[in-house]
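Q: What residues go here?
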């Protein structure tokens, strides 16, 4: 039996596949105050791809995390501001983070569905767009001289 322990927002914090009789394990989870869902058919599910919908209701259920439908028409642009990286379909409430070489260049919730970023120097820019429970959208933009 597959067991997923989750938070109030439905994030899976622990996932176990128990092959022995599971009632004793489930009782341990209840006694320790853990909330969990079970699935007899599921094998181990990566928490990056799954969550628990209805986590604060009486009928929580395992669900696949949806994908954000963000479009990036060009992934290679000219550095120096002559061209801009464009992202279309960004949810207004999403957290957007841009990094280059591990250094954070921008982080915020712009509240716009279309975003443009100038890439001032050549390099690989990584843009991550996060809005729970959707999967993290990550894209790399190459800025060339």
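A:
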């Amino acid at each position: 039996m597959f067991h997923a322990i989750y938070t109030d927002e439905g994030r899976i914090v622990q996932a176990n596949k128990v092959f022995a009789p599971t009632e004793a394990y489930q009782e341990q989870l209840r006694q320790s105050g853990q909330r969990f869902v079970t699935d007899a058919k599921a094998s181990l599910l990566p928490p990056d791809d799954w969550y628990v919908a209805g986590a604060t209701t009486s009928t929580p259920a395992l669900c696949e995390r949806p994908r954000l439908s963000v479009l990036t028409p060009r992934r290679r642009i000219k550095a120096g501001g002559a061209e801009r990286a464009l992202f279309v379909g960004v949810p207004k409430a999403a957290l957007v983070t841009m990094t280059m070489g591990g250094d954070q260049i921008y982080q915020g919730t712009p509240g716009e569905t279309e975003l443009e970023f100038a890439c001032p120097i050549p390099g690989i820019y990584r843009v991550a767009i996060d809005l729970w429970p959707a999967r993290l959208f990550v894209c790399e933009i190459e800025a060339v001289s």
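A: Context that may help when evaluating the design: Helices lie at 23-31. The chain has one helix and twelve strands.
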